[in-house]
Amino acid sequence: MELMINGEKQEVEANTLLDVVSHFNLESHLVVTEVDGQIIDRDQWDQTTVKPEMKIELVHFVGGG
């Protein structure tokens, strides 16, 4: 399915927001998600169905010094 992820169209095999996060091999405890302008709580990822052309923002925090 084609989704708009972080401003770029991407083809992703996903049914839920959790599938999208998993597709990118991101550590879920370090990710904040936004779908069509709304922040989605981590406990709702597996219940949030994705649809073609959805606008998803994935923000992944990294440590450093």
From TrEMBL:
<dbReference type="InterPro" id="IPR016155">
    <property type="entry name" value="Mopterin_synth/thiamin_S_b"/>
</dbReference>
<dbReference type="InterPro" id="IPR003749">
    <property type="entry name" value="ThiS/MoaD-like"/>
</dbReference>
<dbReference type="InterPro" id="IPR012675">
    <property type="entry name" value="Beta-grasp_dom_sf"/>
</dbReference>
<dbReference type="InterPro" id="IPR010035">
    <property type="entry name" value="Thi_S"/>
</dbReference>
<dbReference type="Pfam" id="PF02597">
    <property type="entry name" value="ThiS"/>
</dbReference>
<protein>
    <submittedName>
        <fullName>Sulfur carrier protein ThiS</fullName>
    </submittedName>
</protein>
